[in-house]
Amino acid sequence: xxxxxxxxxxxxxxxxxxxxxxxxxxxxxxxxxxxxxxxxxxxxxxxxxxxxxxxxxxxxxxxxxxxxxxxxxxxxxxxxxxxxxxxxxxxxxxxxxxxxxxxxxxxxxxxxxxxxxxxxxxxxxxxxxxxxxxxxxxxxxxxxxxxxxxxxxxxxxxxxxxxxxxxxxxxxxxxxxxxxxxxxxxxxxxxxxxxxxxxxxxxxxxxxxxxxxxxxxxxxxxxxxxxxxxxxxxxxxxxxxxxxxxxxxxxxxxxxxxxxxxxxxxxxxxxxxxxxxxxxxxxxxxxxxxxxxxxxxxxxxxxxxxxxxxxxxxxxxxxxxxxxxxxxxxxxxxxxxxxxxxxxxxxxxxxxxxxxxxxxxxxxxxxxxxxxxxxxxxxxxxxxxxxxxxxxxxxxxxxxxxxxxxxxxxxxxxxxxxxxxxxxxxxxxxxxxxxxxxxxxxxxxxxxxxxxxxxxxxxxxxxxxxxxxxxxxxxxxxxxxxxxxxxxxxxxxxxxxxxxxxxxxxxxxxxxxxxxxxxxxxxxx
Length: 525
Hints:
By secondary structure, this protein is an alpha/beta fold. It is built from 19 helices and 14 strands. It has an eight-stranded mixed beta sheet with strand order 5-12-11-6-10-7-9-8. A four-stranded antiparallel beta sheet has the order 2-3-1-4. A two-stranded antiparallel sheet has the order 13-14.
């Protein structure tokens, strides 16, 4: 089953965004921590502000009965609204400045005071702010007293001297001494910083995902109109260097990681057989877009997987610029492809069998020529491949497509081309240019192989790779209670060094039908 596309026709769902978050969680966390640290540093640099509140009650004198008291209560509530506006005026601020002996201007004092009238009350609440608790307390008390004095002046203005004010503002006790600053609010600032940091982190992840052109799923390849014919998991043994690490004839003991790699090769082998059932490709070029995408190791292991069925297979190292197949198979240095094409050696003299797999033969690159492209595009190369495919499957390891034209030239002499793509490294633009180069010369692209796919960790969620499960026989020394068809989850184990190569397993009935009768081996002179 192919992995689901990152974006369906109906648009991305929650799983798509969750995958993005999992992929870039380190960046999101780094941005979140950075914003929190900056927010906390900002709070440390801000001056501390303390607030203290004091209240005054608007009272109407002369209430002698209930009716007069009710009328006075309504008047005091009405007056409270009026005096709340008066409290925020310069005359009141001037009185406070004079009583406390402050040097600040009236406008500055007004900016440090807020006036509030609670709903349906005759109370006027003054809240003052200052740099110390004592200053805030004194300012709140002084402001209520100044407002009370201002109210007396206003109420007695134009009245006889012996007549007291009808309405007064009476202070309701002293303001409390604040115990902690109200600003900066560290908890609130950190909460806002956390929300802002998380938003910035998510924005970073979405932008990074949108701009990331690296191929991370089979769906990205399929958008270019190419099928993914194989998904090869990452193998720790290959990370230590190029090597042929898995075939049906090479058993690796209890190393369970090998089962996933071997099963992926078998799946690729089967897919190639079904690309054209009536006329399956017998000569295949394996290439990539750029170097370091694992195409040489892939070609070697694919050849081993085909040869393990008993089908005679010839692996040709046509990378005449950086040949590595002789090193992979630990073959002696000497003649190779260039010597055969130039007529300096016979094919039978330089075509070397691979001991663990008798059906596999390797043709090294030989001496490095000055004109690789011309040599690979020659008629001698075409005749060589035509001669080999008569009784063998030919796998050709070719140079990358973008740096040089060797692979594009060579692809015209074979039945089809496989393009290796390293998951998480090759970009969609590189693959698109590579496919355009192949289509330009009229070659047949068999498909794309998604190589070195992670099977564990966060990156594996993009692929849904089946290698986390495998079919295996009982471990050595077990009682045999587990049958071969039992599906089990892979557990993290330490890779075990491969034992001595065992003899090739006999073909199953399915493989006999799939691949046909074995071709006769070439008689060595």
